[in-house]
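Try it yourself: sequence plus 6-O-phosphono-beta-D-fructofuranose, in.
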Amino acid sequence: MVTRRVGILTGGGDAPGLNAVIRAVVKRGVGQLGWEVLGIEDSFNGLMDRPMRTHVLTPRSCRGLLHRGGTLLGTTNRGDPFAFATGTDVVDRTPQLVEGFQDHRLEGLIVIGGDGTQAIALRLMRERGIPVVGVPKTIDNDLSATDRTFGFQSAVDVATDALDRLHTTAEAHERVMFLEVMGRDAGHIALSAGIAGGADVILLPEIAYDPNRIAAKIRRRQEIGRLFTVVVIAEGALPALHDGSAVPLEERKARLRKGGGAATIAMAQLEGRIEAEMRSCVLGHLQRGGSPVPSDRILATQLGVGGVDLVEAGCWGQMVCLRNGHIEGVDLERAVSEYRLVDVKGQLLRTARAVGIELGAPE
Ligand code: F6P
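Structure, out:
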Protein backbone atom coordinates (compact mmCIF):
# COMPACT_ATOMS: atom_id res chain seq x y z
CA MET A 1 0.00 0.00 0.00
CA VAL A 2 1.33 3.44 -0.96
CA THR A 3 1.56 5.63 2.16
CA ARG A 4 2.48 8.93 0.48
CA ARG A 5 3.05 10.35 -2.98
CA VAL A 6 5.88 12.85 -3.06
CA GLY A 7 7.63 14.54 -5.99
CA ILE A 8 11.38 15.16 -6.06
CA LEU A 9 13.40 17.52 -8.25
CA THR A 10 16.84 19.07 -8.56
CA GLY A 11 17.16 22.77 -9.43
CA GLY A 12 19.94 25.26 -10.15
CA GLY A 13 23.53 24.36 -11.05
CA ASP A 14 24.44 20.74 -10.41
CA ALA A 15 26.73 19.66 -7.57
CA PRO A 16 28.38 16.30 -6.90
CA GLY A 17 26.08 14.44 -4.51
CA LEU A 18 22.67 15.23 -6.07
CA ASN A 19 22.22 11.60 -7.11
CA ALA A 20 23.22 10.44 -3.64
CA VAL A 21 20.37 12.52 -2.16
CA ILE A 22 17.84 11.13 -4.65
CA ARG A 23 19.02 7.60 -3.87
CA ALA A 24 18.72 8.16 -0.11
CA VAL A 25 15.20 9.60 -0.43
CA VAL A 26 14.09 6.64 -2.52
CA LYS A 27 15.79 4.02 -0.34
CA ARG A 28 14.26 5.43 2.82
CA GLY A 29 10.93 6.72 1.47
CA VAL A 30 10.04 3.97 -0.98
CA GLY A 31 12.12 1.06 0.31
CA GLN A 32 11.32 1.45 3.98
CA LEU A 33 8.27 3.66 4.40
CA GLY A 34 6.14 2.60 1.44
CA TRP A 35 6.03 6.00 -0.33
CA GLU A 36 5.68 6.52 -4.04
CA VAL A 37 8.33 8.97 -5.24
CA LEU A 38 7.88 10.75 -8.54
CA GLY A 39 11.03 12.12 -10.16
CA ILE A 40 10.40 15.47 -11.89
CA GLU A 41 12.77 16.25 -14.74
CA ASP A 42 14.75 19.47 -15.23
CA SER A 43 13.83 21.30 -12.05
CA PHE A 44 10.17 22.44 -12.02
CA ASN A 45 9.95 22.18 -15.82
CA GLY A 46 8.91 18.52 -15.81
CA LEU A 47 5.65 19.43 -14.04
CA MET A 48 4.94 22.50 -16.18
CA ASP A 49 5.59 21.00 -19.62
CA ARG A 50 2.94 19.12 -21.57
CA PRO A 51 3.29 16.21 -21.82
CA MET A 52 4.70 16.23 -18.31
CA ARG A 53 8.19 14.86 -17.86
CA THR A 54 8.09 12.75 -14.71
CA HIS A 55 8.82 9.15 -13.82
CA VAL A 56 8.34 6.94 -10.80
CA LEU A 57 11.59 6.27 -8.95
CA THR A 58 12.21 2.91 -7.33
CA PRO A 59 15.13 1.49 -5.35
CA ARG A 60 15.85 -0.55 -8.46
CA SER A 61 15.98 2.47 -10.80
CA CYS A 62 18.28 4.23 -8.31
CA ARG A 63 20.89 1.49 -8.18
CA GLY A 64 24.49 2.50 -8.80
CA LEU A 65 23.75 6.19 -8.22
CA LEU A 66 25.75 6.91 -5.09
CA HIS A 67 29.02 7.78 -6.75
CA ARG A 68 27.65 9.32 -9.93
CA GLY A 69 28.01 13.06 -10.53
CA GLY A 70 25.35 15.16 -12.26
CA THR A 71 21.71 14.39 -11.59
CA LEU A 72 19.51 11.58 -12.78
CA LEU A 73 16.64 14.08 -13.01
CA GLY A 74 18.40 16.82 -14.95
CA THR A 75 18.44 20.43 -13.78
CA THR A 76 18.38 24.01 -14.95
CA ASN A 77 19.20 27.38 -13.44
CA ARG A 78 16.91 29.20 -15.85
CA GLY A 79 13.44 27.96 -14.97
CA ASP A 80 11.67 30.22 -12.47
CA PRO A 81 8.00 29.19 -12.85
CA PHE A 82 6.86 32.65 -11.65
CA ALA A 83 8.86 34.41 -14.36
CA PHE A 84 9.62 31.93 -17.09
CA ALA A 85 11.52 33.35 -20.05
CA THR A 86 10.23 32.20 -23.44
CA GLY A 87 11.89 34.07 -26.31
CA THR A 88 11.30 37.74 -25.55
CA ASP A 89 8.38 37.08 -23.16
CA VAL A 90 8.39 36.36 -19.44
CA VAL A 91 5.35 34.35 -18.35
CA ASP A 92 3.89 32.95 -15.13
CA ARG A 93 3.81 29.17 -15.59
CA THR A 94 2.72 28.32 -12.06
CA PRO A 95 -0.88 27.48 -13.16
CA GLN A 96 0.54 24.56 -15.23
CA LEU A 97 2.76 23.59 -12.34
CA VAL A 98 -0.15 23.48 -9.88
CA GLU A 99 -2.23 21.51 -12.39
CA GLY A 100 0.62 19.00 -12.85
CA PHE A 101 1.04 18.70 -9.11
CA GLN A 102 -2.68 18.02 -8.63
CA ASP A 103 -2.94 15.63 -11.59
CA HIS A 104 -0.26 13.47 -10.00
CA ARG A 105 -2.08 13.68 -6.63
CA LEU A 106 1.18 14.64 -4.94
CA GLU A 107 1.26 15.49 -1.26
CA GLY A 108 4.30 17.72 -1.60
CA LEU A 109 7.68 18.22 -3.22
CA ILE A 110 11.22 17.57 -2.03
CA VAL A 111 13.23 20.32 -3.67
CA ILE A 112 17.00 19.88 -3.87
CA GLY A 113 18.63 23.19 -4.72
CA GLY A 114 20.54 26.30 -3.74
CA ASP A 115 19.21 29.62 -2.50
CA GLY A 116 17.48 30.54 -5.79
CA THR A 117 15.62 27.24 -6.06
CA GLN A 118 14.67 27.26 -2.37
CA ALA A 119 13.32 30.81 -2.70
CA ILE A 120 11.09 29.62 -5.57
CA ALA A 121 9.99 26.62 -3.48
CA LEU A 122 9.03 28.90 -0.60
CA ARG A 123 6.97 31.12 -2.93
CA LEU A 124 5.23 28.06 -4.36
CA MET A 125 4.22 27.01 -0.87
CA ARG A 126 3.06 30.47 0.21
CA GLU A 127 1.44 31.70 -2.96
CA ARG A 128 0.31 28.50 -4.70
CA GLY A 129 -0.26 26.15 -1.77
CA ILE A 130 2.30 23.51 -2.79
CA PRO A 131 3.90 21.94 0.31
CA VAL A 132 7.68 21.74 0.01
CA VAL A 133 10.66 20.44 1.94
CA GLY A 134 14.07 21.77 0.89
CA VAL A 135 17.43 20.02 0.66
CA PRO A 136 20.36 22.46 0.30
CA LYS A 137 22.93 22.02 -2.43
CA THR A 138 25.72 24.14 -3.85
CA ILE A 139 29.42 23.78 -4.40
CA ASP A 140 29.72 27.41 -3.21
CA ASN A 141 28.91 26.52 0.43
CA ASP A 142 27.25 29.90 0.80
CA LEU A 143 24.00 28.94 2.58
CA SER A 144 24.20 30.15 6.14
CA ALA A 145 21.48 27.84 7.46
CA THR A 146 23.67 24.76 7.04
CA ASP A 147 27.22 24.25 8.27
CA ARG A 148 28.17 22.70 4.94
CA THR A 149 26.57 21.88 1.61
CA PHE A 150 27.39 18.71 -0.30
CA GLY A 151 29.43 19.32 -3.44
CA PHE A 152 31.68 21.81 -1.68
CA GLN A 153 34.33 19.30 -0.58
CA SER A 154 34.31 17.70 -4.02
CA ALA A 155 34.92 21.10 -5.62
CA VAL A 156 37.71 21.83 -3.14
CA ASP A 157 39.20 18.44 -3.97
CA VAL A 158 39.31 19.24 -7.70
CA ALA A 159 40.73 22.72 -7.07
CA THR A 160 43.40 21.35 -4.73
CA ASP A 161 44.43 18.76 -7.28
CA ALA A 162 44.65 21.53 -9.90
CA LEU A 163 46.88 23.54 -7.55
CA ASP A 164 49.19 20.58 -7.00
CA ARG A 165 49.56 20.28 -10.75
CA LEU A 166 50.01 24.00 -11.34
CA HIS A 167 52.72 24.14 -8.69
CA THR A 168 55.07 21.88 -10.61
CA THR A 169 54.68 23.66 -13.93
CA ALA A 170 54.87 27.11 -12.25
CA GLU A 171 58.13 26.09 -10.59
CA ALA A 172 59.57 24.58 -13.76
CA HIS A 173 58.95 27.80 -15.72
CA GLU A 174 59.44 30.26 -12.86
CA ARG A 175 56.03 31.75 -13.53
CA VAL A 176 53.27 33.39 -11.58
CA MET A 177 50.35 31.04 -12.03
CA PHE A 178 46.74 32.04 -11.36
CA LEU A 179 44.01 29.50 -10.69
CA GLU A 180 40.50 30.96 -10.93
CA VAL A 181 37.89 28.99 -9.02
CA MET A 182 34.10 29.22 -8.70
CA GLY A 183 32.06 30.37 -5.71
CA ARG A 184 29.92 33.22 -7.05
CA ASP A 185 30.08 36.05 -4.48
CA ALA A 186 31.72 33.88 -1.80
CA GLY A 187 35.33 32.75 -1.49
CA HIS A 188 34.92 29.47 0.39
CA ILE A 189 36.30 27.26 -2.40
CA ALA A 190 39.26 29.60 -3.00
CA LEU A 191 40.14 29.82 0.68
CA SER A 192 39.92 26.09 1.42
CA ALA A 193 41.64 24.97 -1.76
CA GLY A 194 44.26 27.68 -1.36
CA ILE A 195 45.20 26.46 2.10
CA ALA A 196 45.05 22.78 1.10
CA GLY A 197 47.03 23.39 -2.09
CA GLY A 198 49.72 25.58 -0.52
CA ALA A 199 48.92 28.74 -2.49
CA ASP A 200 51.12 31.78 -1.89
CA VAL A 201 48.32 34.26 -2.51
CA ILE A 202 44.55 33.83 -2.09
CA LEU A 203 42.18 36.47 -3.43
CA LEU A 204 38.56 36.47 -2.30
CA PRO A 205 35.42 38.46 -3.18
CA GLU A 206 35.18 39.36 0.53
CA ILE A 207 38.53 41.21 0.48
CA ALA A 208 39.10 43.93 -2.12
CA TYR A 209 42.75 43.44 -2.94
CA ASP A 210 45.64 45.84 -3.42
CA PRO A 211 47.80 44.70 -6.38
CA ASN A 212 50.86 46.28 -4.74
CA ARG A 213 50.65 43.77 -1.92
CA ILE A 214 50.57 40.86 -4.36
CA ALA A 215 53.51 42.31 -6.30
CA ALA A 216 55.45 42.75 -3.04
CA LYS A 217 54.77 39.12 -2.09
CA ILE A 218 56.03 37.90 -5.47
CA ARG A 219 59.18 40.04 -5.18
CA ARG A 220 59.87 38.80 -1.63
CA ARG A 221 59.67 35.23 -2.88
CA GLN A 222 62.00 36.01 -5.78
CA GLU A 223 64.52 37.57 -3.38
CA ILE A 224 64.75 34.31 -1.44
CA GLY A 225 65.07 32.23 -4.60
CA ARG A 226 61.43 31.16 -4.91
CA LEU A 227 61.05 32.25 -8.49
CA PHE A 228 57.47 31.10 -8.93
CA THR A 229 54.22 32.03 -7.19
CA VAL A 230 50.84 30.32 -7.13
CA VAL A 231 47.75 32.50 -6.75
CA VAL A 232 44.21 31.20 -6.18
CA ILE A 233 41.59 33.72 -7.14
CA ALA A 234 37.85 33.38 -6.60
CA GLU A 235 35.74 34.24 -9.64
CA GLY A 236 34.20 37.17 -7.74
CA ALA A 237 37.45 38.76 -6.48
CA LEU A 238 38.24 42.29 -7.60
CA PRO A 239 40.87 44.92 -6.78
CA ALA A 240 39.95 47.72 -4.40
CA LEU A 241 38.84 51.03 -5.90
CA HIS A 242 41.21 54.01 -5.75
CA ASP A 243 39.91 55.04 -2.34
CA GLY A 244 40.54 51.51 -1.02
CA SER A 245 36.84 50.56 -0.94
CA ALA A 246 35.31 47.46 -2.55
CA VAL A 247 33.33 47.55 -5.79
CA PRO A 248 29.63 47.48 -4.78
CA LEU A 249 28.10 44.01 -5.14
CA GLU A 250 25.62 45.05 -7.82
CA GLU A 251 28.41 46.37 -10.08
CA ARG A 252 30.74 43.42 -9.76
CA LYS A 253 29.27 41.12 -12.39
CA ALA A 254 29.46 43.78 -15.10
CA ARG A 255 33.00 44.73 -14.13
CA LEU A 256 34.15 41.09 -14.11
CA ARG A 257 32.55 40.48 -17.49
CA LYS A 258 34.08 43.61 -19.00
CA GLY A 259 37.54 42.77 -17.66
CA GLY A 260 37.45 39.18 -18.95
CA GLY A 261 37.17 37.48 -15.55
CA ALA A 262 38.85 37.72 -12.17
CA ALA A 263 42.21 36.15 -13.11
CA THR A 264 42.56 38.24 -16.27
CA ILE A 265 41.83 41.42 -14.33
CA ALA A 266 44.36 40.50 -11.62
CA MET A 267 47.07 39.76 -14.20
CA ALA A 268 46.43 43.12 -15.88
CA GLN A 269 46.79 44.79 -12.47
CA LEU A 270 50.20 43.16 -11.97
CA GLU A 271 51.49 44.01 -15.43
CA GLY A 272 54.46 46.38 -15.03
CA ARG A 273 54.64 45.82 -11.27
CA ILE A 274 56.51 42.50 -11.37
CA GLU A 275 59.18 40.86 -13.44
CA ALA A 276 57.81 37.43 -14.11
CA GLU A 277 55.80 35.67 -16.74
CA MET A 278 52.15 35.11 -15.78
CA ARG A 279 49.66 32.49 -16.84
CA SER A 280 46.12 31.74 -15.76
CA CYS A 281 43.89 28.69 -15.63
CA VAL A 282 40.12 28.97 -15.20
CA LEU A 283 38.97 25.74 -13.57
CA GLY A 284 35.28 26.30 -14.40
CA HIS A 285 32.82 23.43 -14.49
CA LEU A 286 35.45 20.78 -13.78
CA GLN A 287 34.70 21.73 -10.17
CA ARG A 288 31.10 20.61 -10.52
CA GLY A 289 31.61 17.43 -12.55
CA GLY A 290 32.58 13.91 -11.61
CA SER A 291 32.10 11.80 -8.51
CA PRO A 292 31.39 13.27 -5.08
CA VAL A 293 34.13 12.70 -2.52
CA PRO A 294 33.21 10.37 0.37
CA SER A 295 32.32 13.18 2.80
CA ASP A 296 29.89 14.64 0.24
CA ARG A 297 28.33 11.20 -0.34
CA ILE A 298 27.82 10.85 3.40
CA LEU A 299 26.37 14.35 3.82
CA ALA A 300 24.09 13.94 0.79
CA THR A 301 22.82 10.63 2.19
CA GLN A 302 22.23 12.20 5.61
CA LEU A 303 20.34 15.12 4.07
CA GLY A 304 18.24 12.81 1.87
CA VAL A 305 17.20 10.75 4.89
CA GLY A 306 16.70 13.98 6.89
CA GLY A 307 14.42 15.33 4.15
CA VAL A 308 12.28 12.19 4.34
CA ASP A 309 12.12 12.58 8.13
CA LEU A 310 10.86 16.15 7.75
CA VAL A 311 8.09 15.01 5.40
CA GLU A 312 7.13 12.18 7.75
CA ALA A 313 6.95 14.68 10.61
CA GLY A 314 4.76 16.99 8.50
CA CYS A 315 7.38 19.75 8.60
CA TRP A 316 6.51 21.25 5.21
CA GLY A 317 8.10 24.65 4.69
CA GLN A 318 11.39 23.56 6.22
CA MET A 319 14.80 22.84 4.79
CA VAL A 320 16.96 20.03 6.15
CA CYS A 321 20.41 21.15 7.23
CA LEU A 322 23.56 20.21 9.13
CA ARG A 323 24.08 22.22 12.30
CA ASN A 324 26.74 21.44 14.86
CA GLY A 325 26.96 17.88 13.62
CA HIS A 326 23.18 17.28 13.73
CA ILE A 327 20.75 16.92 10.87
CA GLU A 328 17.71 19.07 11.58
CA GLY A 329 15.09 21.30 9.99
CA VAL A 330 15.16 25.07 9.58
CA ASP A 331 12.38 27.31 8.27
CA LEU A 332 12.85 27.88 4.56
CA GLU A 333 12.16 31.55 5.18
CA ARG A 334 15.32 31.76 7.31
CA ALA A 335 17.26 29.43 5.07
CA VAL A 336 16.93 31.69 2.02
CA SER A 337 17.31 35.02 3.78
CA GLU A 338 20.94 34.69 4.86
CA TYR A 339 23.85 34.31 2.51
CA ARG A 340 27.13 33.14 4.03
CA LEU A 341 30.32 34.87 2.97
CA VAL A 342 33.81 34.03 4.22
CA ASP A 343 34.22 35.43 7.71
CA VAL A 344 37.07 37.89 7.28
CA LYS A 345 37.81 37.69 10.98
CA GLY A 346 37.37 33.90 11.07
CA GLN A 347 39.71 31.11 12.09
CA LEU A 348 40.40 29.88 8.57
CA LEU A 349 41.49 33.28 7.38
CA ARG A 350 43.68 33.74 10.43
CA THR A 351 45.27 30.36 9.70
CA ALA A 352 45.99 31.44 6.13
CA ARG A 353 47.68 34.64 7.31
CA ALA A 354 49.55 32.73 10.01
CA VAL A 355 51.27 30.52 7.42
CA GLY A 356 52.26 33.53 5.35
CA ILE A 357 49.58 33.45 2.67
CA GLU A 358 49.02 36.92 1.17
CA LEU A 359 45.33 37.90 1.08
CA GLY A 360 45.70 41.19 -0.74
CA ALA A 361 44.87 43.46 2.20
CA PRO A 362 46.02 43.94 5.78
CA GLU A 363 44.09 42.27 8.61
O1 F6P B 1 26.42 28.29 -7.86
C1 F6P B 1 27.24 27.31 -8.42
C2 F6P B 1 28.06 27.87 -9.53
O2 F6P B 1 28.92 26.85 -10.03
C3 F6P B 1 28.88 29.11 -9.18
O3 F6P B 1 30.03 28.81 -8.45
C4 F6P B 1 29.12 29.70 -10.54
O4 F6P B 1 29.31 31.09 -10.47
C5 F6P B 1 27.86 29.38 -11.29
O5 F6P B 1 27.25 28.30 -10.61
C6 F6P B 1 28.07 29.01 -12.73
O6 F6P B 1 26.83 28.81 -13.33
P1 F6P B 1 26.62 28.22 -14.79
O7 F6P B 1 26.64 26.73 -14.68
O8 F6P B 1 25.30 28.74 -15.19
O9 F6P B 1 27.76 28.70 -15.64
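One thing you can check immediately is this: The first helix runs from residue 18 to 32.
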